[in-house]
Amino acid sequence: MSKKSGSYYTPENLANFIVKYVQENNFFSNKPIHILEPSCGGGAFLKAISQYFSEKNIFIDAIDFDTCAIEKTRKVVSTLHGEYTVTKADYLNWSANTDKRYDLVIGNPPYISKKLLTEDQKESCKNIHAKNGDFGTEIHNIWTSFLCDGVEKLTSDGTLAFVLPAEILKVKFGEKIQRALLKSFPRIEIFTFSKNVFPNIEQDTVILFLYKQSNEVGLYFTTIHDSNCLINNRFKLKRKRSLEAMKLKWSAYPLMEKQIKSVVSLKKKLPPIISYCETIPGIVTAANDYFIVNKSVVDEFELEALSKPIVQKGIFVNGCVSLSKDKFKSLIDKDKPTYFLDLSQADLTNQKHKNYISIGKQRKIDERYKCTLRNKWYEVPGAWVSDGFFFKRCHDYPKFIYNDADALVTDSSYRIKMKDGYDIRSLIFSFYNSLTLAFSEVQGRYYGGGVLELTPSEFKSLPIPYMEVTTEQFNEFVEAFHNKKSIDEIIERNDAILLSAQLGMTDDAIESLKIVRKTLMDRRQNISKSQFS
How far apart are CA 510 and CA 487, in angstroms? Predict the structure, then answer.
C-alpha cells in the first residue's frame, strides 16, 4: 500500500465474492463479454474473473501505472482463462484515448486526495468530470474520476462493481455523485462493512454495484460483518426509498424508513443554527507549534506582552461547556501550549524578540504558503475573540463552548458570533438535546477511529429548539455538565425542558430520536482497524 499511489490491494476473498456475485446476478449471453479492470494491482480480480467466468468468452483490459504490479499481472494472466491485454499506463491518460465500451467495469480504484495529485492528473480528472456534468466539476479525490469514467464506459446493459471509500456516502461532494448515479442506474446496491476491509489503514470502504438494466429497481443496502456472510450469502439487501428521493444523504442508510421520514419531518419544523449565529473558522497560523507556545517559551523570549490566551485543541476543554478563566489557568499550570504570539507587535530592538523571529526563519516557516501571502510572514491575521466556539471534530458528542475566558481558538473549531437579539449561552444550552445531536450524526461524516466531523454547512443547518435561558439556568447547566457521569444525563435533562415541555414532543418521539442517534453513533464508532476476515 502507498499513500501517494493510493493503492490498497484487494483481499482475495473480497475480490472472489465481488466477481462471483456479479456473475450470478447478471444474465451474460453467449456473446463475448468485454471487461475493464482500470487498476489491476496484484491481479486479485483477474484471477477471480478467470475462475467464475471460465465458461464464457471473455476479453479483459487490465491497466495499472505501477511497473511491479504490471509485471506480476502479466505472469498471472498467462495461466488464466480469457484473453488479456495488460497495459502499463496512467489510467486517466489511457482512457482519454479509447472509445471502447464494456459489459463489466470492475476493480478497486486508487484513493488519492487532490493535494497529492500532479497538475496533469488534476487536468485529466477535470476532463473526465466534464463529460458527466452530473458528477460535479470540483475534484476532491482521484477515485471519483475512476467512477465517473467507469460509468461512461459501460454498455447500455452493463454493470459496474467497485470497492470505494465510504466517503461516497458521507461527504458533501458525494451527494452530487449519489444524485448522478440514481439518474443513470435503475438499480444500485451498496455493501457496507462493520469492520475495515483493508489491514493497517483506517479507510472505511463499501462495495458499489451499479446495474444499467434490472427487473427489480431501487437503491439497496446491506452490512457485512465477516467473510462468512459473503461466502454463505448471509446478508439481506434492504431498499431505502427515502434515500432514493435524496431526503438525506446515503450515510443515513442504517436507519429504518420510518426513522428517516420522522427526522426529515422534524427538521422542517425547526430553524437551523444559522438563524441565530454566524460561524467563522478559527485562526490559521500555518505553524501552530511556532505561534502557539507554553509559558516557558513566553518567559524565555520575553513574549508576555505579545501573547494572548488561545485554545489549540478540543481535548484541552473536554468535559465542559463553559471555558472559565480558572479553567484556562489550569491549562497554563499544566504547561499546555495556551499562548498565541501576536508577533506583529514584536519589538525589533528587543534581542530576544529578534531571536524568536530568527528561529522561525531557520525553520523556514516564512517559506510556508500561507506565510508567503502575508505582508510580514509572522503577522497572523484574524486574531479576534468570539462569543463561543464549536469544535468541528468529536468522538462521543460535539463540543460547543461558551468563551468566558476570552480566549482565541485555532481552526480546529468554528468561532461563533451571535446575531442581534440572541444569546450564546442560550444557544449552547439549546444545542444539547436528542434532536440536535441526532442530526449531528445524520448530517456529519466520520473518519477512522470513529471521529465525527461537521463541516461549516453541516453545522449551520442543524435544527435546534432554541430557548432563552437565564444566567442562573445556564450556570446550573454548566455545573450539571461538569458533574455528569455521561452525556446521556445532560441529554435526558435537556430533553425534558426543550423537547417535551417546549415543543410538546411525546416520550415515544423523543425515544425514537435517541435510537437514531445511537444507531448512527454506534455505526461510526464500531468501525475498527481490524482486518476483514
Answer: 16
